[in-house]
């Protein structure tokens, strides 16, 4: 309205005033657009919350990326890209890391057999679990247990002194 008013009034330097008003309008529109894009970006990230929670609660599940994408109502490719943006890892690698942390925790805090730990952690095949564990941690599960239990026992005994 102000721009049209300036044109109709035809005051001196009205063209410069119109340019200034137009620039102000563009700035307001840009801010609104940016604000909307940021809100959309946050909403997309929030869409992933149920999946990430499910990965922590059901890390032993055999869900595929397509299952997770359905939880978010996203296409598989969009889901994977968004997940990588948020976590820095592809979804199945993220879940594998959760599984590995659970396995390491069970190894150091329980006396469960390695085969049972593999199953609880979502690895149905103990040999596969051993291979993946060694690859990620540099030692097989049994050695990891022995090494980390000894250091934990040492810390407990040294705390008592």
Which keywords apply here?
disordered C terminus; single chain; 161 residues; rod-shaped; mainly alpha
In short:
This protein has 161 residues and is mainly α.
Task: Give me the secondary-structure topology.
Blueprint (H helix, E strand, L loop, with lengths): L1 H8 L4 H34 L1 H9 L7 H8 L3 H12 L3 H19 L4 H7 L5 H12 L3 H20 L1
Description:
This protein is mainly alpha-helical. The protein has nine helices and no strands. The longest helix has 34 residues. The relative contact order is 0.07.
Counted by DSSP, the helix tally is: 9
Q: What Rg do the Cα atoms give?
A: 28 Å
Beta content comes to under 5%
Structural class: mainly alpha
């Amino acid at each position: 309205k102000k721009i049209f008013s300036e044109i109709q009034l035809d005051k001196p330097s009205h063209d410069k005033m119109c340019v200034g008003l137009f620039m102000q309008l563009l700035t307001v529109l840009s801010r609104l657009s940016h604000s909307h894009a940021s809100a959309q970006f946050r909403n997309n990230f929030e869409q992933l919350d149920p999946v990430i929670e499910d990965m922590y609660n059901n890390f032993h599940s055999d869900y595929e990326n397509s299952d997770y994408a359905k939880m978010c109502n996203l296409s598989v490719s969009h889901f994977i890209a968004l997940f990588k943006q948020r976590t820095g890892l592809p979804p199945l690698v993220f879940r594998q890391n959760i599984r590995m942390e659970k396995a390491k925790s069970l190894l150091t805090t329980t006396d469960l057999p390695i085969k049972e730990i593999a199953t609880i952690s979502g690895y149905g095949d103990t040999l596969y679990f051993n291979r993946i564990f060694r690859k990620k941690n540099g030692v097989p599960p049994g050695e990891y247990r022995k090494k980390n239990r000894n250091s934990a026992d040492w810390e407990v005994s040294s705390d008592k002194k």
